[in-house]
Amino acid sequence: MSRISYINGSYVHHYKAYVHIEDRGNQFADGVYEVIPVRQSNLIDFKPHLDRLNRNLKKLKIKFNYSGKALYFIFNRLIYLNKIKNGIIYLQISRGTAQRDHAFPEYIEPNFFITARNKKINNKLIEEGVSVITTKDLRWKRCDIKTISLLPNVLAKQEAIDKNAFEALLIGSDEIINEGSSSNFWIVKGNKIFTGPLSAKVLPGIVREVLINIINKEKIDFIEEKFTLQEAIDSNEAMITNSSTVITPVVKINDKVIGNGMPGPITIKLHQLIEKNIIEQIVK
Ligand code: PMP
What we know:
Oligomer: single chain
Number of helices: 8
CATH architecture of the largest domain: Alpha-Beta Barrel
Order of helices and strands: EEHEEHHEEHEHEEEEHEHEEEH
Strand content: 25-35%
Distance between the termini: 26 Å
Radius of gyration: 19 Å
Low-confidence stretches: none
CATH class of the largest domain: Alpha Beta
Largest sheet: 9 strands, mixed
Helix content: 25-40%
CATH superfamily of the largest domain: D-amino Acid Aminotransferase, subunit A, domain 2
Bound molecules: 4'-deoxy-4'-aminopyridoxal-5'-phosphate
């Protein structure tokens, strides 16, 4: 089966999907992206992803005129054409193609493309948890915008992989854990769940948003508060969240064991609740 992607209005063979060399995404990382989960061939949390995309386009003054309805249709078509069961949709929108110049033209057509791929659900992650490392947060001062400028994130993740860890937590100059290289970070102390408040140092993750809604609905103790590496090491449970793996328990930080070294009861409970929320979105 040949893989099909979508680029600037056309469905094309994946290996024939190109942008121009003077695409501003390519030259300046002048663009935004989204990763939307697919479960049992259904889009999950489409609306909050679309809302975040629109907020980010506005922040970068990129004028993209596809409606949410059109995107929903294209995403579903790609799910069908590529026979996606469980996986992800990746959408990238750059400002467009123009002669290289830092300032951008007033009238410019965005370049955008969408890819779809299957991704196996790895149950071992939730059953056993993962190890993470910490590294300096070298990113710019607007980490709240989901731009394709990801070099510090890429280097941090590679550092984690080179050290046999799953993720790198990014530590600010104030010793606070801001988030992971591609995830939000949470800890549990006693019965209380903590994650850092939204700020320019944190990406407003969709799983973060959905999970906070669930936590509030279930009346579980929750505090949006900054915490340090030492506080995380001293916590009872820790976890990371993102759209590709939803909730992943963290059982070691820099080789220091968290709690009893196994995914804790609150993490497991949150995982069950968010999975229930996903199943409820799947059309029978
Ligand atoms: N923080 C960063 C830096 C990320 O790259 C991601 C994943 N895109 C997240 C948090 C989690 O966001 P989401 O839950 O929307 O996948």
